[in-house]
Amino acid sequence: MLELALGNAAVALRSEYQKHSDAQRACAGKVSVAEAALAGFRTKLTVDQFIAVPEIVDVDAQIQALDKQIAGAQGVAQTLAKPLFKKLFAPVFNLDEFRALAASKLAQDHRHPRRSYRAQ
Fold it and tell me: Which of 18, 42, 58, 119 could cross-link 50 (Cys pair, CB 3.0–4.6 Å)?
């Protein structure tokens, strides 16, 4: 309508309308840039949902603590990935034969104590 109006008042209104229109376009551009910048942070949240997310005051300290936990978990994973202890095989002794021999020797010594002392 302002385009069809004539006179100084219409020109002034047209100029003021144009200023407001330019300001609206500039603000809309700023909003678009801000929303695009937030796109990587807000993932699937809408802008209103993202704004409603509570602020975390000590976020840097929490991130550092989580980084330490992750590094510790990676260290554990590396330790667990190492091969297990090598198996050692101990020699097997047949003690039954030793016991039988010792028992027979002791039995002989009890039967003939003088012989065993003379032999020493």
Answer: 42
Residue range(s) defining the domain that contains residue 54: 8-81
Main-chain dihedrals φ then ψ at residue 89, nearest 5 degrees: -110, 115
pTM for the model stands at 0.36
Taking the C-alpha atoms of residue 55 and residue 71, their distance in angstroms, rounded to an integer, is: 26
pLDDT, position 115? 56
C-alpha distances in Å from residue 29, one per residue of 23, 25, 35, 42: 10, 6, 10, 19
d(C-alpha 86, C-alpha 88), whole Å: 6
Whether residue 86 is contained in a domain is answered as no
pLDDT band at 3 (very low <50, low <70, confident <90, very high): low
- Number of structural domains (the chain) is 1
